[in-house]
Specification:
Elements lengths: L1 H12 L17 H129 L2 H22 L1
Length: 184
Amino acid sequence: MKNVTDSFVSLVNWPFAGSFGLNTDILATNPINLSVVLGVLIFFGKGVLSDLLDNRKLRILNSIRNSEELQRGAIERLEKARARLRKIEIEADQFRVNGYSEIEREKFNLINSTYKTLDQLENYKNETIHFEQQRAINQVRQRVFQQALQGALGTLNSCLNKELHLRTISANIGMFGAMKEITD
């Protein structure tokens, strides 16, 4: 069996008669074959390898450009968002300050209106008291006048005769008519 294996190995290493073969044993090959193979690989493979590397380089550069554009866009959006945030914070501070000043203004207005209402109530109270005093005074006057009138009538009735009595009544009616015209 060893001979069969050796014969296959020897076939691989030795080319057939009239054909071209490649000796894979590095130590058994000569430098000319190696240089020819390397030269052919470099000559024909250089273009393919160069194209592959150029394509890869272009894809990497495009990816970098796209990433840079995306980064610039993200930075612009971030700056816009920061500007909007600053604007909103300023507006919020203004609303807060305006809210506090509005609260203070409303508080001041409420206090003032309360004082005005209290003053009006005090005036109404004083007017009511004055009105009631005047009414009480008028009632007392009327009662005193009625009592004086009744007393005078009683005195007159006891002292006067019928004719004098009629003249006195006529005079009093005339006085009441004159008083009524003055008060109207």
